[in-house]
Specification:
Elements: E1 2-7, E2 12-21, E3 24-34, H1 41-59, E4 63-66, H2 75-79, E5 89-90
Parallel strand pairs: 1-4
Antiparallel strand pairs: 1-2, 2-3, 4-5
């Protein structure tokens, strides 16, 4: 089983792809999708969405999970992450 984990953000989105065989886990790929800081929020989110679509098509995970919004000190950045309305999901077999 291949599992894709996503750490969302409005400037950078991190990801990691692991493969599970029984009780063994192996890292397949990890990386970051970065946006230009000078772009408007809508353009950044559209870019991230396109890049995530490409990542999903290329890696074909069986399941995916997205990290919940971090509730830290910087409430301004929390409100500008666009919501990222994704949840853990599993591809139908």
């Amino acid at each position: 089983m291949r599992i894709l984990g996503i750490d969302p953000g409005s400037l950078n989105a991190g990801f990691g792809l692991i493969e599970q065989h029984g009780s063994s886990l192996r890292l397949i790929e990890q990386g970051r999708i970065s946006c230009a800081r000078d772009q408007p929020l809508g353009a950044r989110l559209a870019f991230l969405a396109r890049e995530l679509d490409l990542l999903l098509a290329r890696t074909a995970p069986d399941a995916a999970a997205i990290e919940a919004t971090f509730h830290g000190r910087n409430t301004r950045s929390l409100s500008s992450d666009g919501g990222w309305p994704l949840e853990s999901t599993r591809r139908p077999r």
